[in-house]
Structures are given as C-alpha cells and as structure tokens.
Write a structure and sequence with these properties.
141 residues, HU Protein, Chain A, 3-stranded antiparallel sheet, 33% helix
C-alpha cells in the first residue's frame, strides 16, 4: 500500500515560467454509499444501521459546531467554526455585517497525521499515472 505520485511540467500562473512539480495521483472518489459499504463490511454491522449512525454522526457534529463547540472525533480530528472580520476602531462598529468569512475548520488528529507521514510514496511516470483504473491499479493494455 502507498500513495502514488508523479512529476510533470507546469506553467506558473499566466507567466512564461515553467517548472516540474510532483503531485499525488487521485484515481477515484469514494462516495457516501461506498463508505457505508466499507464500514459495514469492516464491522459486520448491517449497511442500514451503519448509514443511520453515520448520518446521525454528521448531523450531531454539524449541530454542535454551529452551537459553538469544538468537536473531537477520536483518531480522525476536530471540527470547529471560525470567522474572520475586519478590525474596527470602535467596539460598537463590530457587527455581524463586518464578518468577511465563515469557515468550518478541520484539524486532523495526531494519529491521522502520523498515518500520512508514515505512508510510502510510489513514483510513477506520467503515462502510468494517467492509465490507473478506479482501484489505483495499472489498467490492462
């Protein structure tokens, strides 16, 4: 197991500057129902129960974060709500209308960060990176 990477020539913005950069290969997206199936297979719990629990988990995280809590999910990370607002000279000028941006911030758990740091990288050439199937394997010619 490892993360597949490749290097390619890139142009920097709208300039004439070019250089090589290494990127991670993304060969598929796991959607909600696929994740439910994987969790069901991993735990031996029926898919309907897993889906209900996962739906409730996301609903509870959303409600708690929007009520001002930081929510920590063990081995995954913490979720919190944040805002940024322009500084004002007088306190009475600090209003909700001055808020520029609202964000949901996710901070990975050290356990999750540790997994990423220890993951081996597999270097591919660009042609192989373009020919991976949805499971990340080289497609048969």
């Amino acid at each position: 197991m490892g993360v597949k990477i490749y290097s390619s020539l890139y142009r920097v913005g709208n300039t004439e500057n070019v250089g090589y950069a290494t990127r991670k290969v993304t060969y598929s997206k796991i959607d909600w129902y696929e994740l439910v199936q994987h969790v069901s297979q991993d735990t031996g719990v029926f898919e309907g129960i897993v889906e209900a629990a996962m739906h409730s988990l996301t609903k509870q995280i959303r409600e708690m974060v929007l009520n001002g809590h930081s929510v920590k999910v063990q081995h995954l990370g913490s979720f919190r709500f944040s805002i940024s607002a322009k500084m004002q000279e007088k306190m009475e000028d600090c209003t909700a209308r001055k808020v520029r941006c609202r964000r949901l911030i996710f901070t990975p758990d050290p356990y999750l960060k540790g997994i990423a740091e220890g993951t081996p990288l597999i270097k591919l050439n660009r042609e192989d990176a373009d020919s991976l199937d949805e499971d990340g394997e080289l497609a048969d010619e």
